[in-house]
Each structure stands twice: as structure tokens, then as C-alpha cells.
Amino acid sequence: MRLSVEEYRHWSHKKVTLLGMSGVGKTHLSGMLRQHNWFHYSGDYRIGARYLDEAILDMIKEQAMQVPFLRDLLRKDWIYIRNNITVDDLGPVLAFVGKLGNPSLGGVALNDFVRRQAQYREAEIKAMLDVPEFIQKAHTIYGYEHFVNDVGGSLCELDQPGIIELLAEHTLILYIQVTTKAEEQKLIDRAKSDPKPLYYRPDFLQQQLAIYLQEQGLPHAEALVPDDFTRWVFPRLFHSRLPRYEAIARDYGYTVTSEEVAAVKNEADFNRLIESALARSKS
Hints:
By secondary structure, this protein is α/β, with parallel strands linked by helices. It has one domain (5-276): Rossmann fold. It is built from 14 helices and five strands. Strands 2-3-1-4-5 form a five-stranded parallel sheet, with helices on both faces. Helix 3 (43-51) packs across helix 4. The radius of gyration is 20 Å and the shape is globular. The two termini are 17 Å apart. The mean pLDDT is 96.
């Protein structure tokens, strides 16, 4: 969606998609806007609550069934397991995606990991296809004036025709760009200090996995220490995503910096940030 500053300023029902790497401030902005009559649509929450809910529960039940006491309780329907995901805690989705590596060290074997990656991709596509419907629901059912789409960092990886076009048709796409080496290193250091499960394009995963196994002299993926591989691959994933984000912003949206986002304290700041991005784009 392309708008002038004046058009955005007088847009009665603002609709914005926040795009960028995890850690650049998308969820922080969305949570702040939620306090100012914006509906916060979290892509990963929708994924976990709707499209991967059964798969998450099956994964947990499979583990529980290995414990005789819990197995008996589950088979007799004396207990049940619930996916307690929240917008502020997406742990069930992260647990499902998992980290590639030695299962005895908490990792996921390669075949299972690839299967889960494919399931996550399909779920993210479906969650993005739901955006127009939730824009309508946010206003007509829940009474919110505005809508913010907080997408996962992997949106640029999907390579699914029509997804970005759909978001651009219904929302203003705002890319949060990391512009300094210091900010870039901060994101990488944060990811390395607390490695989290990630989504990888299939060709990227196979390429990087082959390089890592060769460098480390390991025979196969099940020999990986999960956190070690996740730390090693994150900077490479980060840099592979940058041109993808930039292409989306160039063709369909607008760009602001992570430093500008860090200065946003309230809704008025956020609107001024977007207006400055629109003015820059026009000039």
C-alpha cells in the first residue's frame, strides 16, 4: 500500500505490517500500540493457536506417552494437555520448531526437523492469508480502530507467490532496517547468547549444514550440538535475509531504522515515524 503523508495522517483505520529480523522491535511496537486502540495480530500466535495447535499437542503427548504413569492417565482420559500459548509467550511454537541436532542433547533429528520446518512454513502462509479477515474482525467485532500485523522474521523466506502482494494490498508494510554494524552485532550477540529455534529455507539449510559438518568433521546432523549449530548459522541467516527484506521494502513498502524505532515511546511517535518514512520515500 502506497500512501502520502497526508493520506496516512487522515487514514481513519490504519493498517500496518511490521517487517524485519527478530529483535528489531516489532513485538515491542505492537505491544505498545495495543494500549492505544490498535489490534495486535501476531503471526506466530496465530500459527501456534490455530495451524500448529494439533501438531504441538501431538508432540507433547508423544513425550508424555513414554512415561507409564502419564500414559495410563492419558489413555483413560483422566488428564488432558493444553497448548497455553500467548501473544507475549510463543514458547509452544518455538518448542515445536526445535533445534537441529543430537536428540539426546535436546535436538531434533534431520528428517523430523525438515518435516517440522515444512509444517511451520505452511502454517505461516495460512496465518498471513488470514490477515484481511482479521482486519475486518478487529474493527467490526472487537472495536479496534487500527491494526498492526506483527510478522515473524521468516516472512521473507517463504517464497510463496501472492503473500507479500496480499499484505501490501491490505496494509502499509514498514521494514525495520538494521543500519549500523553496532546494531547488527547486538542482534547477533543476543541470538548467540540465547539461541532460539529458527526457520530456514530448505536450500539454505542444506547448504549451511553441509558446510558446518565439513568444518567440524562430523558425520551427520544427529551428531550436532544443537545450540552450537544454531549460534554458528545465525549470522549467515541474518545476512541472507537482508536483501530479501530490502527487496520487499523497495517494491511494496517503506523503511525505517532500528535506531528510529528505539526512540518510539507512544502512538504519536509511531505515527510520526511512519510519516517520516513516507516523506523520505517521496523525496
